[in-house]
Request: fold
Amino acid sequence: MIITRLDRTQLPERVDKLADLLVDTVDGGASIGFLAPLDRTAAVAWWQERARAVAAGHLAVWAAYDGHRVVGTVSLAFPDKPNSRHRAELVKLMVRRDARGQGLGRRLLDTAEETARSAGITLLHLDTETDSPAERLYGSAGWIRAGVIPDYAADPAGVLRPTTLYYKRLGETAPTR
Reply:
């Protein structure tokens, strides 16, 4: 599989394939902000919004390809405040159901972390559904559990679930972005 960062011209061209991944991920039970079943039109619109954030420099998106199919993605969201240029939020780590268990989630996570480190980001943070497979991935990758918020978000079935907050320190260099 190939992982590539999508720039302001590539992301809009791949919205349909990214929407397929989003629908598959939500329908597979991953709690990433949507209820199931996720309408494909809504998934396309969501990725179109992300394309605008990439063009504005507020979001970086990587996609993993198996041939011409997008099988995974991860993003970094960058704050726009001057006092927070040293950090970013890891968001929307997704892997298609038929590509799980092969180390792709870890590769996507490593890609985002290394790029953040190279850009001078010294702190990453994220939230994920408590007791989810994603939580196990972050814990095994050295992320530090900061706490749990009860009833934080509804899972794809609409049931309120707790979320766990994590952070990871990357280094102590000055931001360059």
The domain at 2-169 is CATH 3.40.630.30 (Aminopeptidase).
